[in-house]
Amino acid sequence: MEERQKVVEAFNKRWKPDITITCDDGEIISYNMNWILDSEYMNYVYDNFPSPRIRDFIIKEKEK
What we know:
The structure is a single chain. By secondary structure, this protein is mainly alpha-helical. It has one domain. It is 53% helix and 0% strand. It contains three helices and no strands. The protein starts with a helix and ends with a helix. The mean pLDDT is 79.
């Protein structure tokens, strides 16, 4: 379980949030949601069921 937590932490560290905020003055809000979300985290860390994104990340990391 600890190894799977490390994989998720490594995945999340690779993505930097792209955040722009839209306000009443016309500024735009956008978010880059590439992080591992709670449901993906729980399925992978506790049930060892990786999402396709996690699986692809693991494969790419092993190829390095």
